[in-house]
Amino acid sequence: MVFRFLIIAIFLSSAPAYSTELCLSCHKAHYIGVGSCKACHRGNPATARKDLAHKGILPGRFARFMTAGAAQKTEWEKKLNSLGCRRCHVIGAVGNPFAVNLDQSAQKKSPEELARAIKNPAKAMPDFRLDDSTTDEVVTALLAASLKSTPNLKPAAQLVHFDQTRVNKVDVISRKCGSCHKVLTRRNGLLGKGDAAPNLSGLFSPFYPAKEPWNAERLDRWLQNPRKARSSAAMQPVGISGKELIELKKLLE
Question: Homologous superfamily of 66-148 in CATH?
């Protein structure tokens, strides 16, 4: 008798995961080689009650993150890089840990929640003004990238200013740049409040979306005469002392 139960247990443990999921009582199996129903669609495959089974389920347009080919995944990576998401976020275990870890968000939050966060950005985040279709592509790209995340990665501590007025009186970014720019910094959190000019978060990092990488030397040339560096620049030269320039570079690191 014990031997018989042992054989049954071995058989069940070796059977494909999808064969024991109650999803198949209503839905036809597909993409069997990819994995279980839950791997692509989440939800709760252990219940036959539709309201419980479909709670937190991923619609098919987002479940593509598990079935897409290499070419599609490359396009998703290009989209994330063009938006510069990693200048503030860790995505696929790569990026600056200035803001929330998007690997963890992609694994815990619904696609609709991620889409709302993109369409209605937090205070430090640029407003990308993406249409619904592009937003869905970005969300799917985040889901795909989260498969490469590092388990048990501890998020970096985030600095929050409760007295922004006091901060604005002392840091060079808020005094000299903040009327037009925002920047989420490693040491001082969010500085500046402007939306008229580009968001400078992660400016010196390899994740900042620019044709030519920014570094301390390029910043020096730019601040001396932006229109000499680029004839179409709207920005005027900034009167900044040597001490302020050193502080600015440290804040942008």
Answer: Cytochrome c-like domain (1.10.760.10)
